[in-house]
Design brief:
The protein is α/β, with parallel strands linked by helices and about 200 residues long. It is built from five helices and eleven strands, in the order E-H-E-E-H-H-E-H-E-E-E-E-E-E-E-H. The strands form three sheets. Strands 2-1-3-4-11-10-9 form a seven-stranded mixed β-sheet. The chain has a two-stranded antiparallel sheet with strand order 5-8. Strands 6-7 form a two-stranded antiparallel sheet. A hairpin with a 2-residue loop joins strand 9 and strand 10.
Length: about 200
């Protein structure tokens, strides 16, 4: 997806500390973005958006701390640039961790006996066809504030949410051939870049 003014592809970072960051990068590339693996603070510079993939949330948190990434992540968030958190990335973004979204997630919420399952989800903004979602030891959203929009639920629990420029889900959209969830994120990123461009001109 190119900037309608400058013609540049959207530069989207993928936190490459744990999880299937390469699959996220490939999906973003298919949608016309330029992905960049992020492991150090300087690799956050110039990003239009950032993906925080799955993995193990406690480990990701420790790796963010040891890499000195938290100030750069907060600067990105405070600058109004979009963030997508998937599975453990949802937990990392929640109110009890980085605090990027007014929600709390429960780890391994669907039970360890269902460590991996798939479900057809109706996702707001993804069109009329159900989206096939892969859940792996997935969380769900326990609580969310009034400003949080629930985009999809599974078994009565929110599993995809959005607040402002933060999009988060309990499943792994990078593990299917369906790019629609990433496309929602890319639309958010295009809109954020356009707003930033208009503000710079004002």
């Amino acid at each position: 997806m190119a900037d309608p003014v400058g013609g540049k592809a959207l530069l989207v970072g993928v936190l490459a500390l744990q999880g299937d960051f390469a699959a996220h990068a490939e999906t973003l590339r298919q949608l016309g973005a330029e992905p960049r693996e992020v492991r150090a603070p300087e690799e956050m510079e110039g990003l239009d958006a950032l993906v925080i993939p799955g993995g193990e949330s406690t480990t990701i948190g420790k790796m963010i701390e040891s890499a000195g990434l938290e100030p750069a992540l907060r600067s990105h968030f405070e600058g109004g640039k979009p963030i997508l958190g998937t599975c453990a990335g949802l937990i990392v973004c929640d109110a009890e961790h980085l605090g990027f979204i007014d929600a709390t997630a429960r780890r391994n919420a669907f039970g360890r006996q269902l460590q991996s399952f798939e479900a057809e989800l109706e996702v707001e903004g993804a069109g009329d066809e159900p989206l096939r979602a892969v859940f792996i030891r997935a969380p769900w959203v326990d609580r969310h504030g009034p400003g949080v929009e629930v985009l999809a639920s599974c078994e009565g629990h929110p599993v995809a949410i959005r607040e402002g420029n933060v999009l988060a889900c309990a499943f792994h959209p990078e593990l299917t051939d369906d790019p629609r969830f990433h496309a929602i994120f890319m639309a958010m990123t295009t809109a954020a870049r356009e707003r930033a461009g208009e503000e710079a001109k004002a």
